[in-house]
Amino acid sequence: MNVINKSLLFGLLGSILLLLTIVFGPSLAPYSMDELHLFKKIPQADGTVKIEPAPQAPDGTNLLGTDQNGRDVLSKILRGARITVTFAVLVALLRVVVGLPLAYLGASFPRTVGWLNEKLSLAFTTIPAVLIVFLVVIVFIFSDAISPTQILLLMSLLIALVGLFPTAYVIQGKMDSILKSPFMEGQRAIGTGRWRILRKHIMPHLSTYVMVLLVSEIAQTLWLAGQLGVMSVFLGGSILEQGGPINMRYPEEWAGSIGYSYQAFRSHPMMVLYPVFALSFAILSFHTLADGIRKHHERKWGISL
Length: 305
What we know:
9 helices; two-stranded antiparallel ribbon; 67% helix; mainly alpha; elongated
């Protein structure tokens, strides 16, 4: 009797929905980020008209209402997926792609590269990642000399670096156990080269494990982005106007929208909760997808990852 892998099913459906939102969300968004609804005219029973400033409650014009700057919240959610989720995928890919050769070198040379991976992993896990990123990013996040895209790329590289050595050390441990198996010792005894061992024997054994790790890293990066957003460290940087509030360079970005609007939570809670729901859904989708892939592998092969 086949048992439905609910984690894999939910994770796949959630990931597909996120992918569709990334691709088609900006086209489906009712408004651009430059279209502001600062005031709304509401007819009253006595024939007068009430002027309601932003943020505004949901109505036929703005299905999820507007934020404090008059931007349509639904449009922000639909457009923000492309920045927030793509950013997390890029960071996770960088960690895994660069971490794989580091892990292999660490497993092959445990006394040098392996020892270095272990110590750097310990260093980056002892200090909270959000604190490291905050202290570094705050130096250039308000700079007008750097474009929002350049700031986004710099933040991607920095956040990837913060998690690189912990990721490499985790993969190194898995590679080390494979290399110490009797089969691998036999391959080395008959003179099989390192490259062939890596290509023909290690990577096929690691493929599912690396896939699970990659998806988990995406979820972890989204969680870190959310923490940074609460600390007013926005993806793509901030605009600091003299005498005015800090504004986001990418106002549709989910994680930043949470931190940017949380002060209005008591008066307009849904303005904060909508991006919270979007970010939480993305994190949950990737977490369950990773768990579903792991369960599928264990049921198929009877081997724990």
